[in-house]
């Protein structure tokens, strides 16, 4: 979380000090800075400071101070360790001023420059709401107040994703323009309103709905019904609406009283980041609904829906500008599984030693940071030589070094370094960490005196996730001319956004129906195994008593919300549909193995002894994902090359391989090995090995079922000949997608290396070596 200053107020009570200030980049959250000019007109021998922190409610009321300090400034400057909290602010301010920091303070002009609120250390126990910071300076000897400074800050902002409106009457015409739609801090809205007739009465229905992780709009947590004509005469009648009304009225030319006369009006430069956000609102996506209607005419005039989310910045970064310059960005902030963190740094001088401290805190419901759950302090120079010395730190280090340029030995040279695309979800956390909000400190020090270099605090939340099914194919077959169904997949290449839509046509009334549900695990040869799960039920009875089968009921409840299918028997003639059935929202039982599967549903009529419909859904729960490819030629008459496309995409990752053979290959042996890789990047003993005579195998592919899985897929994407000898020429294997390969049920969920070694047994030489490094990914959704 970072602080953002909205306003500064000061009041001079004495001729001792003159103060002026300037706010640079006032609308930027990360680049905002403040310059203070201070003129001391007489010698100051004693100075006391009253420091107060006040939360501000949604209606703008300043509450009692939750944090208060009274200190003797002269004594504090001689011994800064007397107050740890103020010392953190003092240490930052001392690097941005030309003032002599000791008493007495002599007359002169002094300056505090480039004070960045986003760099200010914020205690984790402070509530995440708007606040007022008050500094009161006074002289105890003279018993007079010298200066009173108030800083109003904001910690949470709103960000609009979409606006919808619907006109129900000819009274209003409305249009809008969303400026800087992708900017959190600079987003603004301009609204244009045309009133076509005189409006004597107007009522507003104000609704605030949280939106669940699966996109479901929940019940309104705020509901207001307001007579707008009365409210504009008595704005204090509703404090919550008044906080929004006061902001909007400063940016509009709409009349502030009834009746509203015909004309064209405008509401300009409404910035969601400036709108007051009540502290009790949950930090989730939300829907703000504004319904305008006339009570006299009993008609709805206008319905406006604003889809938005609350954004809180989750990384606090401080750096020692004498040693390095560092910046941090958090991408995909609203995504659970795709968040990425990037650090860019520029080292100004060589470092001979460095120490790192890692601390993990649990944050309670009241916002207070508890005692450390875990703390680690390591010598960085020793650690990079032997990373296995600390397993917890190594888990973090392994993620940091994947796409980075970081020092690998000491001394650390000066120059640019970076750590890019670190995925928080990929970091392995100890199982004893509780499922709660947390703060993770990552601090670095150098020198004999442990001079601070970087202090980084990452705020987050441990969230339980569940498996998500990824669909690969849908089949449907109708055996009766009175029933027809068509289904279509959408977002095939986006696992978490896959949706299924079906249209059902019933041309004859159906009075009875049986449902048989079967779940198969797919074997290596693509055939279905013995049924893992089977349910047979009377569908008409189930529709009357959905709780009669808990497993089917979990899917039925989700399906019922997104379809127009009949809810009882007999099923009448008509056209029905299933819309926006999101696979990532369908609950997956925990006892199902993480393998390819087939879900089959058979609908029968017991009276007529006939099958009406068969529906089959093919999918997978575990997806291979490539991280690195090695393809080498060991002989002169074969040249090879590879290209890895879209390597950051889970579903669209592809691999192209090219071979140039200058002399025929008459006999080839293939050694096929699969190795799991442990958490410390050690390659284990091969899980399975195969030695195959490739020329014989091409003629008899059924001789080895395991190798046949790879061979059948590759054969569809290559121009290599299907018999020996393989003549001289240019060959390719194109568009190989790791996510399309079936995953055997016995393979562990871990990182792996698949190795293919091609040998010439006559010459006893290795010709080609191919190694594919990857890992298995479970597609996860939030519970």
From TrEMBL:
Superkingdom: Eukaryota
Pfam families: DUF1091 (PF06477)
InterPro entries xref list: DUF1091
Protein's name according to its UniProt entry: Uncharacterized protein
Organism: Anopheles epiroticus
